[in-house]
Amino acid sequence: MFSIVFSYFNDNQKNPSSKSTTSGVSQVTDKQTYLVTKVVDGDTIEIEGGQKVRYIGIDTPETVDPRRLIGCFGKEASAKNKELVLGKKVRLEKDISETDKYGRLLRYVYLPADKAGVGDSFINKYLVAEGFAKASSYPPDIKYQEIFRATEKSARESKKGLWGRCFSGNLQFVLV
Fold first, then answer.
1. Exactly one of 91, 98, 104, 152 is catalytic; which is it?
2. Which of 13, 22, 38, 167 is 20 to 30 A distant from 116 in Cα terms?
3. Catalytic residue at 46?
4. What is the tens place of the pLDDT at every residue in 61-78?
């Protein structure tokens, strides 16, 4: 049985700190690729060595925080992220901050070019473009902020993903 809960959508609802800290962080560089060993949710993964990585500039509906309701389209976002990156090597790109207040690396995530020569797939942007995530920037990590905003606007106008299923005006529908 499902019940529907209406809550106002708040851009600052999930605001990881942009503090930069290196305690407990493995040496991760932008030039290497890393095997994704676990998908935590739609915007967080774990790479070989156990380090968690939070995607910069995007936010997907909640699925794992026990203090929050499961967000509309959260399960779909998590499943899509898993389909895209689990068991694959990804390239990580740092902006300004190293980690958030939870110790997760803050990175842009790419699937490297395939053997056919097709360019890198920018996972953060893809999730926004297909309506699995919204643009959500936290300074100082804003390198691709305008790209994400424009991509979100297009997804919203096309009613892709969560924009077609979950939003009516400024309300977010949450299934529990």
1. 104
2. 38
3. no
4. 999 988 889 999 999 999
